Amino acid sequence: MGTSFTLAITAIQIVASFLGIVTNGFMLAVNLLDWKHCKGLNASDYFICAVGFSNLSSQIWSGLHWFCQPFWNLGFLCPIAYALKMISIQCSLVVSSMLCVFYCTRILNLNNALFRFYQRHYQESYRSVIIKSFTVCTMMGWPLLWVQEKPSNLPFSNCTSNFSMSKTHYDIYFGIYRLLVLSFGYTFPLVLTIGSASLILISLLQHTNRMRDAFNTKHEAFIDAHLRAGYTILSILLLFVMYFITAIINIIDILKEGDRGYFICQLVSVIYAPALSIVLIRGNTKLKNAADALKARVGWVLQPKGYVKEDAGDLEV
């Protein structure tokens, strides 16, 4: 494989990592400023902060792990960086799916007693849901401290261990661990995201049909809420599917290190965090307004001194 291709992919990964740190840091900064000024945070803000913190952590630990790989003799630092990177990625996937479920509980209006009970319980206990998700992901990622991973994106490669046990016993235990991580860290969030997207789309179609039949335009704001939630959930689902495909490719070990496909999978994994943060910023009114204000401020600062924008009225003769 050509050196130019490798350098290009590496440069894109560095830019994507920097963009991920900036965008996720922006989400956290906006909400922290609101909390500091006692403006209060709603449930969606807590979920977005959890996703932003997970993505920011994964970007930082991924960079540290990438730096550690040429210097594996640094001792225990590299396994710690790898374990924390994978824990952060799993937290991001799980909490993102929980955010999609939260959007469903806020927007859907189903006449079902079980759904009503779940809706009320979920909206009241969102803090505990976030804490439990982080706790479970941390517990499931803890064994990675004792497993030397192959330089890969997932802890699912056939690697060696320092355990003093037979290869057969290690393969059995590691296979069970791999199945648990794949089920909870990847498959479970994917199912939640697909279910949330399906329910949002069905509800949007039903509500649109009712409005069309009744020639009623009083609930356009409700449709806008559906569209914003649908855009966010479908975008998260698309990113999730892309990341899930790269996960499966790494699990079954199709691509070897150095192949073009291997670098592309690594690139998709790096792009996931900044792309997800951009989706959340565009789908959240507060973050979108803050981003527009920051963009205008940066444009004003970078504007050349003494530059005066011409008014159209001044051009008239």
UniProtKB/TrEMBL annotation:
Gene3D superfamilies: Rhodopsin 7-helix transmembrane proteins. Coiled coil: none annotated. Its main location: membrane. It comes from the Eukaryota. InterPro entries: TAS2R (IPR007960). GO terms for molecular function: bitter taste receptor activity; G protein-coupled receptor activity. The chain crosses the membrane at residues 6-33, 87-108, 129-147, 172-205, 226-249, 261-281. The keyword Phosphoprotein does not apply. Keywords: G-protein coupled receptor, Membrane, Receptor, Sensory transduction, Taste, Transducer, Transmembrane, Transmembrane helix. The keyword Transmembrane applies. It is a multi-pass membrane protein. GO terms for cellular component: membrane. It is found in: Membrane. SUPFAM superfamilies: Family A G protein-coupled receptor-like. It holds the Pfam family TAS2R. Belongs to the G-protein coupled receptor T2R family. This is Taste receptor type 2. It comes from Pyxicephalus adspersus (African bullfrog).
